[in-house]
Each structure stands twice: as structure tokens, then as C-alpha cells.
Amino acid sequence: MDPLVFSTETRLLPGSFPSPIPLPADAPRTPENRGHASSPNDFTASSFNRRQPLFGKMRSESPPSPTVQKSPQLVHEKLRSRLNKVTLPKGCKGFVYIFRNPKDKLLKIGSSETPYERGQKIKSKCGIQIEVVHTSAWLEDYGRAESLAHGDLWDLCRPFTCVPCSHRHREWHEVDDELATKTVDRWVKFVKEEKPYDSGGSLKGLWKFLFSERQQVVPWVAAGDVAGNVAGNEKRRENIALMLESPSVKERAEYAWFVISRHPIWALLWEFPWQVSTVIAWLIMFLIARNSVVFLILAIYVGLVWFSMSFHFKRGLKLKGLGRR
User: Which residues fall in a compositionally biased region of kind Polar residues (predicted)?
Assistant: First the structure.
């Protein structure tokens, strides 16, 4: 795979979690097991309401657990997809916030122009007595920073279905305050200070180049580290912090040379060496002599070169057309 081409593959977050007492699909219904789902897909809201209180009322006290552990490589693919996603800024500034649910200690990472009002809405809509853990600096493209933080902590995401609002929340994470704050601040700083995206919402060429070059020294994921383990993802996060450092003068110079050396003008010069060299020679003579005769000769040569190149391109297009028949 071309290291400069970031994957646009989208991976969905985990689906429903198994019921507390899963039963085989063909298990008979009895008074003892009535009310429990026969499979995760049959786990209805009514049975969920009876069996699991939410945040002390309609959801169990224990935090949700992922159905499968996510390997460092899988989490990296999710994050890389989000890094490469073309997203236009909302045109206003906002914050990335971290809220805590004191019942099960899960942390919600979200973004809003008004975090306080957002917290009040969560409290009234979902019945959660939230605590504010952290609020980021004010920035544009705050939604992008939130999305990247989610991708970085995807291995710690604990989605669940909220009965009061009938939504499946995917912003809650089983993570300590320090790691959550460090992750949010890292991506907020990257988006706010480095400005890695252009006006169209695409990742700039400089950062594509930097990611490609830096991963040869500090890989996103350690070679052979495909197991879904905590240590592997912690090491991946350490490497990401190094990947997001500001480019040095040397790296900027290397990128400038990378762009210049691959400019299509060089292919044009190689294709028409004598035409281009003649025009350059007469241009130099005109800059030295600065008289109308030399300028006239220069203009004639420019016209002849233009005619020669146009004829060449038209002939090439005709030959390509004949070759397709």
C-alpha cells in the first residue's frame, strides 16, 4: 500500500452486547428464563428495562464490556480512516469536553459550542448526574478533534443503549481521567496549532508526507503486534504522540524538495528539451540586451515551440485513440 494513501475504509463500532444471561437460539421458554433474550439481536428494550437500571435507575452498576478486544492494528485503521476523512468545519468555534458518570465511572468525550448547556441536556434527557472532568481550549473544527480522540480511544469505547432517550450512545469510554484528558488535549493541539487540514477539509500534503516518513522510524503499530492487548494499544498511543509533533525545518525542506522533484514540469522538459532550452536561451538574451529585435525573435520562438508542442500532443491523442479501437 502506498504509505501516502490513507485508508478510507470505515469500520462500524461494535453492535449490541450480549444479554446478562444469554440463551441458545433454540432454548425453550420457561418461567425461569422468561424475560431474557435468546440472542443479542432479540434483546429488547422492555427486557433491558426490567433487568438493567440505567445509571442507578435503568442500567446495571457494572460498566459495559466490549464483545471483542480491539487490536492495535484495528484501532489504528479506525484512526487512520478518521485522519483521512474529508470534513468541512462547522464555521464556528467550540470545545471538546469530558464528562463523568459517577455511578459507573465511564467518561463521555463530546464536543459542543456550549458544554454547560450540553451537560444539562444530558442530565434531563438521559437522567445522568454528570461531573465535568475537563474542557478543552476553544477552537475551530472542534468536531474533528473530538472524532480523532474517539478514534484514538476506540479500544476503550463502551457503547450502550440508553432506555430513556432510546439511543445507542457511543461516546462513553472506560478510561481514567489522566489518559482521557491527555488524549483530548493532544488532538485539540494538533487541530488548533498545526492546522493540518486545508479549506476543503482534506489532510494537507505536508502531513501525509510526515506520516509516511515518520512511520519508518516510529511505526504507528509495532511489527507483529496484532494481539488485542492493553499494552499494545498503550504503546500505539505513545507512538502517535511522536507522530503528531510539529515538523522541523529539516522535514519542511525535505517536503519542499519532494514536491518540487515530482512536479509535472520536469516531465515536460524531458519531453521537449530543445524547444524549452531555445526559449530559455533567447529569454536570457532578452534580459541582457533588452531591445525590440531580441524580443521579436523570442516571441517567434515561443510561437514555434507552442505550435510544435501542440502538434505533438494532438498526434499523441490520435495515436491513443487508434490504439483503443
Answer: 36-48
| Buried b or exposed e, range 265-277, using 16+ CB within 10 angstroms | eeeeeeebeebbe
Helix residue ranges per DSSP H, the chain: 45-51, 72-84, 115-126, 142-152, 177-189, 205-214, 230-243, 249-261, 265-271, 273-289, 292-324
Residues 37-48 have pLDDT tens digits of 333 333 233 333
pTM of the model: 0.66
Residue 43 Cα to chain centre, angstroms: 33
**Contact, 83 vs 109, CB < 8 A?**
no
Q: For 192-247, what is each residue's pLDDT tens digit?
A: 999 999 999 999 999 999 999 998 877 777 655 555 566 788 888 999 999 999 99
Cell 453492535 locates to 15
d(CA 233, CA 294): 68
Residue type, 209: F
